[in-house]
UniProtKB/TrEMBL annotation, chain A:
Keywords: Membrane, Transmembrane, Transmembrane helix. It comes from the Bacteria. The chain crosses the membrane at residues 203-223, 260-284, 305-336, 356-378. The keyword Membrane applies. The keyword Membrane applies. It comes from Bradyrhizobium frederickii. This is Uncharacterized protein.
TrEMBL record, chain B:
InterPro entries: Cyt_P450, Cyt_P450_CS, Cyt_P450_sf. Its cofactor is heme. This is Cytochrome P450. It comes from Bradyrhizobium frederickii. Keywords: Heme, Iron, Metal-binding, Monooxygenase, Oxidoreductase. One of its GO terms (molecular function) is oxidoreductase activity, acting on paired donors, with incorporation or reduction of molecular oxygen. Gene3D superfamilies: Cytochrome P450.
């Protein structure tokens, strides 16, 4: 399921670029024509990466980023691009595959295709904002939006404030217009945005998996009995098999129940601590907020250090203890099956014998104690104000220097000021690269899964305006490339990440660092001073919340693009608005659709 | 011109892959389909409730009632635009059909197919290599050259996708191969149907777009070669349709019959010994031998039809004669499915239907012999040409030393959904 998302965002990383820091105008136009004609590419960009330190070829590395429609396999896409009669791909890459061949034969093109396939990298993780829409659909819906607005201006004097009649007149106009015949069919939606949008549908998969598991165990348990019933009492071998199957299936069944119960209990406790208790008790809510705030605090203070230390001393052991209890409870049936005497005679006497009432009593006392401690600290804070100020006072400066932006980056941003912005960011993996790469891949799979299944309305968490954001681990796991096509400006975009998708962004970048590197070409930015990603706490806290340091880090990691293609040049909001208008104009006439039409034409 | 605007998958993840996997498996294991068909023939009312026709009479009935059971069921899977096979009868349909008949009249089969088969066999023998790919090294070319006159002088331009002078005449073989791959995937979508996974559909759409763009660039030379003065869009529609439907389906059929023949060692040996007795050039010139091989081709196609399942749209409420006591109701807006493979094995219409019998006397049911090409007025107009091309291809293979699937080097047959992508053969 995730591969279909990852395949939408491809980077071709081709070493040995012999050209300059600019794409010739003729090639620029040829690429535009090619991508327009193929009509499945939403965004394309070309950039230059500095060669990897120690690589035999120290020429720059050309990166072609392609953000394409869903469902296309890289081979099919590259095949279409390479074999296009205009030959723009050969002009771009030909010299890197077969120098001095101006007019390629079918064999040359095959060689290029194979080379591009060996250079290509599908995203390790990514997010698509305007999902389920093809380039052609976006263009057609944008046209519908534009035409509707023009028509609305004409009809405005006639209908004035009568919203229902106004919407009805627009719907009639749209229906009668043969140009919009295609729009009668509702905009297509994939499962997670359509029938699978409800929580129930999302829960159906794990529930079905659990039920299926129990059914399989039940069948395995029943099989020998059914055999005996059908063919009569078994012999020695048959009885031994029956015993083994019965014991194994019963053990697995009990372990599964225990595991399920332990999971349910942990889920209940998490829910209790995060939802009802903060809702009921102000001191609990305040305590929870302050813990999160201190862990996320961008500058070092005594308070944040104390919280961090407290986390290690109390939080982590407590969580480990809960996990150990859950694990022990889950595997206990196996231990009883393997060594029943040891469990009964040695382990059981050591276990505390508590009734349910006693356990609930202990839990209530623990909660009350946390509430009291929270209230006590709150009072102490208010009573000893000076001490409190010192406690929360920053111990370090945020960013030690003023941020310098390379002119090439500024020029790129200025070029795209009226359209969708673009970003290339290149960092190195820190520590043992295999470990960092593994962690990043795992984190990115989670982000991609969440984006695919839960964040289906164009927002990643609370971050809007992302068209295609994707991460690639390149150069055998040594470098980390991030490409993004987004609305607005760079500062606002990072603010959205910091405030809206902090955990995901921290997870994606926390295993990276910036090492000194020479620019790919003299006109390009390099890195003079090594730096790490802002420090994190417990993997997911802090990190991007160190706003200035994160922005400075992101800025310094950026590389300019030499070429940028935007097939539709619409913001995510405009795309969503146009799709909404299509469904509203051609849907049934009701208050909701009328209101949507009015809002669209007034926006 | 049809533009592909893709539709995301509205089915829950995993469901499509599962159903498509099952569909492909059934396509490859026609014995299972035949067994299922036998059950439905026995209890036709059950088939009726499921919207399935299995008896020969029922299938024939549905295929002849073209107004009640429409060919538009194919339209959704024709990724490169509308064409005859998916149209309802009408002026466009009639004009296009006339054009196709005119183009088919230009074919010179079996002379062309014989010539290419002989040339390819000679090359394969001369190469001295025991293993070859039946599809890529043989069938693809035999069919391509037999069908060259479809585009006449514009063939080079169509293959190169360019109307320039360099694209006239014989173009680079690599370009020809690329063209044939492109049309294979477009045709593959018709086989895979609405169950196809998103990536397969998207590949077919990408190839369909490329094919349309290719034809769009050379519609002038095609019109000139055809000697017609139709509107450019009419030429494009027919050229695109002719390109993708003629070649890949015949190639796939050829691969299927060879697969079936190799599974019948005795039949294969018998044919080979006959070919051996005649020797070169007798195998190509002896009309009696050609007739025997032709009968074998048809019988092999009966066992391995390329479309074992067919679908038809039901435009308005009607009833379907399934052979049960009561007709089955077919609500308008729905679909019916035809188990044509079950009809081809219906003992009430085909004597000794379970036996492999190329010389069977079909009697009054002779038309049923060609059911794999459709039936009645909507039957494939290139039926006889296709059989002749496949006969030529099979004669060529019979002149080679004994063939078998090259199992030692990975899988001998590579599938791509229901399509056969590769079929590695070895001479022994």
């Amino acid at each position: 399921m995730l591969e279909i998302v990852r395949q939408q965002m491809i980077c071709i990383v081709a070493p040995g670029w012999g050209g300059g820091a600019e794409i010739p105008k003729q090639l620029h136009d040829a690429l535009d024509a090619l991508l327009e004609d193929v009509a499945v590419v939403h965004f394309a960009s070309i950039g230059l990466l500095p060669a990897l330190a120690g690589a035999p070829n120290q020429q720059p590395v050309l990166v072609l980023e392609l953000a394409v429609e869903e469902g296309l396999r890289p081979y099919d896409l590259l095949y279409r691009l390479v074999y296009h009669p205009d030959g723009a791909m050969w002009t771009l890459f030909g010299a890197m595959v077969a120098p001095h061949v101006a007019v390629p034969t079918a064999k040359d093109k095959e060689q290029l295709l194979n080379q591009l396939m060996s250079w290509h990298s599908i995203a390790a993780g990514g997010f698509v904002g305007a999902r389920d829409r093809s380039v052609r659909q976006i263009k057609m819906e944008s046209d519908l939006l534009d035409q509707t607005r023009i028509e609305a201006r004409k009809l405005k004097p006639k209908y004035s404030n009568d919203r229902t009649a106004f919407a009805l007149a627009l719907a009639r106009w749209a229906y009668a217009n043969p140009r919009f015949e295609w729009a009668v069919k509702p905009a297509p939606r994939s499962y997670w945005r359509g029938k699978g949008a409800s929580i129930g549908a999302k829960l159906a998969y794990p529930v079905a998996a659990i039920v299926l598991w129990f059914v399989v165990l039940g069948i395995v348990w029943a099989l020998p009995r059914a055999y005996n019933w059908f063919f009569g009492e078994p012999g020695h071998v048959g009885r031994a098999i029956e015993d083994a199957v019965t014991k194994t299936s019963e053990c697995l069944l009990t372990m599964s129940w225990h595991g399920l119960l332990a999971f349910a209990l942990i889920a209940f406790l998490v829910w209790l601590f995060l939802v009802p208790l903060p809702a009921q008790f102000v001191s609990w809510r305040r305590w929870l907020n302050s813990v999160q705030q201190e862990l996320d605090r961008p500058t070092q203070t005594l308070s944040s250090l104390a919280t961090y230390a407290g986390g290690w001393l109390i939080g982590v052991p407590l969580l480990l203890a809960v996990a150990a209890c859950a694990l022990a409870y889950t595997v206990a049936p196996l231990a009883y099956a393997v060594a029943p005497d040891y469990m009964i005679n040695v382990v059981e006497p050591k276990l505390p014998k508590l009734t349910g009432l006693q356990i609930v009593g202990i839990a209530v006392v623990a909660i009350a104690a946390v509430l009291c401690i929270g209230a006590l600290f709150y009072r102490l804070n208010r009573r000893f104000k000076k001490l409190s100020e010192q406690f929360f006072h920053p111990l370090e400066d945020d960013v030690p220097r003023a941020q310098q932006i390379h002119p090439s980056i500024e020029r790129c941003e200025a070029d795209l000021v009226d359209g969708t912005q673009h970003m290339f960011s290149l960092t190195e993996l820190r520590g043992p690269p295999w470990w960092s790469a593994w962690c990043i891949r795992a984190a990115l799979r989670i982000v991609t899964f969440a984006g695919r299944v839960f964040f289906t309305q164009g927002w990643l968490g609370n971050a809007p305006g992302i068209h295609f954001g994707h991460w690639h681990i390149i150069d055998n796991g040594r470098r980390f490339l991030f490409c993004s096509n987004y609305d607005g400006n760079f500062g606002g975009y990072l603010d959205d990440f910091i405030n809206g998708a902090a955990v995901g962004t921290t997870l994606a970048w926390r295993w990276t660092e910036l090492r000194p590197r020479a620019p790919a070409l003299p006109e390009q930015p390099g890195i003079a001073k090594p730096r790490s990603f802002p420090p994190t706490r417990f993997v997911v806290f802090r990190g991007v919340k160190c706003e200035l340091r994160f922005k400075s880090y992101a800025r310094d990691s950026m590389l300019p693009h030499l070429y940028h293609f935007d097939a539709c040049n619409r913001t995510v909001d405009q795309i969503n608005l146009a799709t909404g208008l299509r469904d509203a104009l051609f849907g049934e006439r009701n208050e909701k659709n009328d209101d949507l039409i009015m809002r669209v034409i007034e926006t | 011109m049809k533009l592909s605007t893709y539709e995301p998958d509205a089915l829950p993840p995993g469901v499509r892959r599962l159903s498509y996997g099952l569909f492909c498996w059934l396509n490859r294991h026609t014995t299972v389909l035949r067994a299922f068909g036998a059950l439905l023939r026995h209890w036709p009312s059950v088939g009726g409730r499921l919207g399935l026709a299995a008896r020969a009479s029922a299938v024939r009935d549905v295929l002849t009632r073209t107004r009640s059971f429409s060919n538009t069921a194919h339209a959704a899977n024709m990724v490169s635009g509308d064409y005859l096979i998916g149209m309802d009868p009408g002026p466009t349909y009639s004009a296009d059909r006339d054009l196709v008949h005119a183009r088919l009249a230009a074919l010179d089969v079996p002379a062309d197919s014989d010539a290419e088969a002989q040339q390819r066999i000679k090359a394969l023998s001369g190469r001295g290599v025991g293993a070859f790919d039946l599809i890529d090294d043989y069938l693809m070319w035999v069919v391509f050259h037999a069908m060259r006159p479809l585009f006449g002088a514009a063939t080079g331009a169509v293959v190169a996708g360019s109307a320039t002078a360099s694209a006239q005449g014989d173009v680079d073989e690599g370009l020809q191969r690329q063209y044939m791959l492109e049309i294979r995937y477009v045709a593959g979508q018709l086989l895979a149907g609405s169950l196809a996974t998103l990536d397969l559909r998207r590949r077919a759409e990408a190839c369909g777009d490329a094919l349309q763009a290719r034809i769009d660039r050379v519609s002038g030379p095609i019109g000139a070669a055809w000697g017609v003065k139709s509107a450019s869009e009419d030429i494009e529609r027919n050229a695109v349709g002719l390109a993708w439907i003629s070649h890949p389906v015949t190639v796939q059929s050829g691969a299927l019959i060879v697969q079936e023949l190799l599974g019948r060692a005795k039949v294969y040996e018998e044919l080979r010994s006959k070919a051996g007795r005649l020797g070169e050039p007798g195998v190509w010139t002896d009309p009696e031998f050609r007739k025997i091989v032709r009968n074998h081709v048809l019988e092999l196609m009966r066992f391995r039809p390329i479309f074992p399942l067919l679908a038809r749209d039901v435009p308005r409420d009607t009833e379907m004669k399934t052979g049960a006591r009561y007709n089955a109701g077919c609500p308008g807006g729905g679909k019916v499915s035809l188990l044509s493979i079950a009809a081809l094995f219906d003992p009430s219409a085909v004597p000794q239907s379970g036996r492999f019998c190329p010389d069977r006397d079909w009697g009054k049911n002779d038309a049923l012999r060609y059911l794999m090409f459709g039936y009645g007025t909507r039957q494939c107009p290139a039926r006889d040409h296709a059989v002749e091309i496949l006969t030529s291809a099979l004669i060529g293979l019979l002149t080679l030393p004994r063939l078998q699937l090259a199992r030692g080097e990975g899988k001998a047959i590579a599938y791509d959904g229901p399509l056969m992508l590769r079929m590695r053969m070895r001479t022994t």
